[in-house]
Amino acid sequence: MQVIERTRNRYHFVTENRCSVVLLSILGIIGALLFITTIFQTSDNTLFCSLTRTNLQTTNQNPYPTPIQLRALLHYATSHVVPQQSFSEITVTLDVIKSLNRPFNFLVFGLGHDSLMWAGFNPQGKTLFLEEDPKWVQTVLKDAPELQAFTVHYRTQLQEADELLKSYKSEPSCSPAKATLKGNEQCKLALHNLPDEIYETEWDLIMIDAPRGYFAEAPGRMAAIFSMTVMARNRKGSGVTHVFLHDVDRKVEKVYAEEFLCRKNLVKGVGRLWHFEIPALGNNLSSHDSSIGSRFC
């Protein structure tokens, strides 16, 4: 009888544990769905409805989510991992996306927990990710093969930030009037060996949330900030390039943003995110300031 009683107690214990696990899983999914709803919600309707309406206006497709949107919803609904940026920081980029009201070209430095979200915001446009760690790229793409990502080799280290800021002015290939990116090995701040697709695309939005910049040997974001400034200034099409820089509470990000992206181009700052609108250099050459091509700010 004691054996039977112990078996019965063990059975009840396992059953209760299984019920607890199932209950916690359900609560986790509900919590994740609530988070998605919060992220997607705007003042008058949801982001998903907004993106669907944009798809209908620009492509005349039916009002159903795309595969990348479905994967994003599934990912965030079943994962405890959330995007690195806060809701208010994400909203800054989201407001710009809504204002465009069309598919766009979006270049993102960093491949991580928010990548499916960024790609999901631009289902009919081009969204590319640049990541420093090739193993991490393989890991992420294994679970989300719809994402497009390239590995970037950086020539800088965070501990060189101060010296690079001083020395770039004496290097002709880094000068505001002559700086280029592709093949520019002389300027250490230039990302000179990116895939051709990066150079050949005019990016409407650029998010700089990588590479790592929190220890001395890390690449730092000096080259990313400089290179994206050069790319934005060389824009041939109409309009500005929206550049979003994260982690501006750190010294290097802040100093390099003020040196290259310029305070005058800063249109909004929320939390640790700054939003810049960089005009094309060609649009500024018609102004009365003849020196504008010889300086970044």
Question: What are the SSEs and their pairings?
Answer:
Elements (H helix, E strand, L loop, with lengths): L1 H39 L6 H13 L7 H12 L8 H14 L4 E5 L5 H6 L5 E6 L2 H10 L4 E4 L9 H7 L28 H5 L4 E4 L13 H12 L7 E6 L4 H11 L4 E5 L2 E6 L2 H4 L13
Parallel strand pairs: 1-2, 1-4, 2-3, 4-5
Antiparallel strand pairs: 5-7, 6-7
EC number: 2.1.1.112
GO molecular function, one term: glucuronoxylan 4-O-methyltransferase activity
Enzyme class: transferase
Structure overview:
Its main location: Golgi. Keywords: Membrane, Methyltransferase, Transferase, Transmembrane, Transmembrane helix. GO terms for molecular function: glucuronoxylan 4-O-methyltransferase activity. This protein is α/β, with parallel strands linked by helices and 297 residues long. The protein has a single domain, classed as Vaccinia Virus protein VP39 (Rossmann fold, 3-Layer(aba) Sandwich). Helix content is 45%, strand content 12%. Helix 1 (2-40) packs across helix 3. The longest helix has 39 residues, at 2-40. The chain is globular.
According to CATH, the homologous superfamily is Vaccinia Virus protein VP39
CATH architectural category: 3-Layer(aba) Sandwich
Unreliable stretches: 1-60
The total of helices stands at 11
Order of helices and strands: HHHHEHEHEHHEHEHEEH
Work out the strand percent. 5-15%
Number of domains: 1
Subcellular location: Golgi apparatus membrane
EC number: 2.1.1.112
Membrane topology: Single-pass membrane protein
GO cellular component, one term: Golgi apparatus
What keywords describe this structure?
single chain; about 300 residues; alpha/beta; Rossmann fold; 7-stranded mixed beta sheet; 11 helices; disordered N terminus; glucuronoxylan 4-O-methyltransferase activity; Polysaccharide biosynthesis protein
